[in-house]
Amino acid sequence: MTPNPIKKVGVVGCGLMGHGIVQVAAQGGCQVVAVETEQKFLDSGLGRIDKSLAKLAEKAIEKGKPADAAKADAAAVRARISGSLDKQALADCDLVIEAIVENLDVKKALFAELGRICKPATILASNTSSFPIGEMGAASGRPDRMVGLHFFNPVQLMKLVEVVRTDKTAPEAFAAARAFGEACGKVPVACKDTPGFVVNRLLVPYMVQAIEMLDRGDASKEDIDAAMQFGCGYPMGPLTLTDYVGLDTTLFILDGWVKRYPNEPAFRVPKSLREKVAAGKLGRKTGEGYYKWEGDKKA
Ligand SMILES: NC(=O)c1ccc[n+]([C@@H]2O[C@H](COP(=O)([O-])OP(=O)(O)OC[C@H]3O[C@@H](n4cnc5c(N)ncnc54)[C@H](O)[C@@H]3O)[C@@H](O)[C@H]2O)c1
Q1: What single DSSP character describes residue 288?
Q2: Residue 296: pLDDT band by 50, 70, 90 thresholds?
């Protein structure tokens, strides 16, 4: 494992992804400051971390670790985490990771602010799923210090992090981000700044193909999903996966790509996807997407 040069990390946004990134960075030995817009969001993110660390300690005890040691480990991780509503707290961080709302203008404004606030050596990173890292790097005024660090949900469990370099990223900033990913217990893969990086570039067009297959009536949704589950060994089929990801999130990514890359034939919006989103059928979270859901289970 490459030694991790990142000692202090800032995470902006302590929501679904941000709280997980805060936790794995602290588990990796870094001091971490989480920055939010409002106290209630900060409390909620830190509360999720407390629950997750308590669960980890319980599991370690079940596996035979002495209770005192397991609790002390969790407390040591928690002691490395602090929260703030003031971005000035990020000034002396070695790395600041953005995990705020998926809106490019809002992200660019944040990176411009971070470029002014942070020490010159600070590496800036975005957890975006769909926007070009280079545009945020340009907004920050320090494109050579800008990388993508794309974690997967749930961050605490998913082993992958995509480490994205633009044509302006300095090799040593990229290497530091990669070493940080490893320190967080992740498998880092190197990606260029292309739409969807590696995972979503493969996954989203695959979901599109499955939805179009269903729309054409080539096969039922159950058979499409069973085919991929039992024929390819995937843990779930593409239509179940779309319901899990959220039809709105999938549509948002595709609409952005179609607008930005109109000549890429793999980027297109299936008819039923747009119709279902317009009808409020967003997948598991609304109880209906391609399937009907009762909580976490298909109805
Ligand atoms: N949800 C996923 O599965 C997933 C996976 C990979 C990447 N991502 C990306 O991660 C990012 C965050 O997604 P999420 O699902 O965690 O969203 P979320 O809505 O759960 O969390 C976003 C948090 O950012 C905070 N925030 C917004 N603007 C802010 C600002 N200017 N300063 C500080 N905090 C601010 C919000 O209060 C909120 O708590 C997005 O770019 C998303 O595309 C999401």
Answers
A1: B
A2: confident
Count of C-beta atoms within a 10 Å radius of residue 21: 26
Distance 128 CA to ligand 1 centre (A): 9
CB neighbour list of residue 147: distance below 8 Å, 6 or more residues apart: 123, 124, 125, 133, 163, 164, 165, 166, 169, 173, 174, 177
| Nearest protein Cα to ligand 1, atom 2 | 153
Ligand 1 centre distance from Cα of residue 18 (Å): 7
Mutate to test the pocket of ligand 1, among 11, 12, 17 (most ligand atoms within 8 A of CB): 17
**Exactly one of 36, 98, 135, 162 is catalytic; which is it?**
162
Whether 272 is a known active-site residue: answer: no
Integer angstrom CA distances of residue 68 from 47, 58, 64: 21, 11, 11
pLDDT digits (tens, 9 = 90+) for 203-214: 999 999 999 999
Share the mean pLDDT of the chain: 97
Domains of the chain plus CATH, in order, are 8-192 (3.40.50.720), 201-289 (1.10.1040.10)
Question: Per residue in 175-198, pLDDT tens?
Answer: 999 999 999 999 999 999 999 999
Q: Is 28 in the pocket of ligand 1 (CB under 6 A)?
A: no
162 has which bridge partners? 150, 189
Q: Would residue 263 show up in a list of annotated catalytic residues for this protein?
A: no
For residue 208, the SS3 value is helix
Overall size of the chain counted in residues: 299
